[in-house]
Amino acid sequence: MFVRSIESKEELNMPKNILEVENLNVKFDDEEILKNISFDVKEREVLIILGPNGAGKTTLLRALLGLIPYKGKVLWKTKNVSYLPPQELVQRKYLPPLTIEEFFKFKDVSNEKISKIFKEVGLDLSLLKRPFGALSTGQFQRMIIAWALVNDPKVLLFDEITYGIDVGGKETIYSLLHRIWKQRNLTILLVTHDLNIVYEHANNVLCLNKKKICYGEPNKILNPGTLKETYGMGIKFYKHDHK
Amino acid sequence: MEIILALIMGAFIGMASGYLGTLMLSKRMALVAGPLGHLTLPGIALAFLFGFDISLGAFPFVILGIILIWLFEIKTKLPMEALTAIVFATGVAVTFLFLPEEKTIPALIGDISQISLIAVVITVILSLFIIFVTKKIYRKIILTEISEDIAKSEGLNVKKYNLLYLLCIALIVSLGVKIVGGLMTAALVAIPACTSRNLSKNLFQYSYGGLILGGLSCIVGILGFNFTGIPVGLLIIITSAVFFLISLIFKKEAVNK
What we know:
The structure holds two protein chains of two kinds.
Chain A: H1 2-13, E1 17-28, E2 31-42, E3 46-50, H2 57-64, E4 71-76, E5 81-84, H3 100-105, H4 111-120, H5 137-149, E6 155-159, H6 167-184, E7 187-192, H7 198-201, E8 204-209, E9 211-216, H8 218-221, H9 224-231
Parallel strand pairs in A: 3-7, 3-8, 5-6, 6-7
Antiparallel strand pairs in A: 1-2, 1-4, 8-9
Chain B: H1 2-26, H2 33-39, H3 41-50, H4 54-76, H5 80-98, H6 104-109, H7 117-146, H8 148-153, H9 158-180, H10 185-199, H11 203-228, H12 232-249
Helix pairs in contact in B: 1-7, 1-9, 1-10, 1-11, 2-5, 2-10, 3-4, 3-5, 4-5, 4-9, 7-9, 10-11, 10-12, 11-12
């Protein structure tokens, strides 16, 4: 009886699934983009989705959000999900003279909340008066993260969040994500090419190349074999312990 | 009395077209009003032949044109601009088969010489409707322009807002042909928006600047017509163009480039 009650308590503390994906298939015209993808994501997990160009990573995120048609099961246990597409797919030029403050007002958010979130992501409030297209790539990425945080999401989906940012800037963005993940108890799904961040930030990794190559904890599943299968024969893999 | 009615009608059409024009410019669709204006010509011809309101004749033809372009695109996969050219050129050709010669100029460049009170009331109501709907969809359409994926993931029904936006365009073109004719509707939406863009620092100034400049251009154009007798459509567009040239002097820095 005593043992059972301890087990029940542990069960209660166990993170629950926040997303369940079963046999997800996506086809464009007659081309199979994703084939039989299945995985779960638990609350407060960081899942990094790895794969070469054309592997279907972005398609996977778009299917998870219901932005494109798919077959299979995608079950979210929350409705509070924010998505940030790759920066190159966010229009910054040829827009009307939109300020950052006006962009945030699209969500009818109070000035106090904007100030709080700007501080959280390390942005100066003076940027609010700047035009939407006039921020640097790094500032823009922080701003768009701040925008995603306005709804107090439970889950954040990021697609190539550090695209076009230099090495130092990338580290800053990943540190920021790590901090808000911890502070806000978030679940994060992150699409990236960047293998270096996997060991530091991911609880689980999904290697994708149109089908699921491997899925699990990075230390257990990432090896030369799985990476070759994911990225093709050209990849060289050096594992070190960061000491 | 007629000039008062014309001023009221012109001001409201100008404000609605200027406001909607800022959104069309943001979507790089300001020129679309041109071919759509040409599409109204068969309707205008019918209105002249049978003596009913020009906008009433124009509206179904704009809608018919949009549907035809949409259907042809599905059927042929040809670029929309090419299909628009086919549809509007055919519309113009068919119009001049039937349009009496003396009605050609008014159809092309506008005519406000015979305005009824009921036409003005309907025009004001429809213009207010366009301004109201445009205000409702403005932020959503801009967000869709920034990223359709972000907009959809935020739960926006992008198709619904695009449909409302197209409906507003069809309405404003149908109203605009009354004062500037079928030839120059693109200018009615594009020029005030461009002028406002030159003078604005933010979205609020830009959108309402378009509304004010659109209304002002029409009022000045109609007053000019009253004093000179020069066709009203020409004067409205020339006034708009003068405002645009003046705005170049005060142009703010290009902020999103």
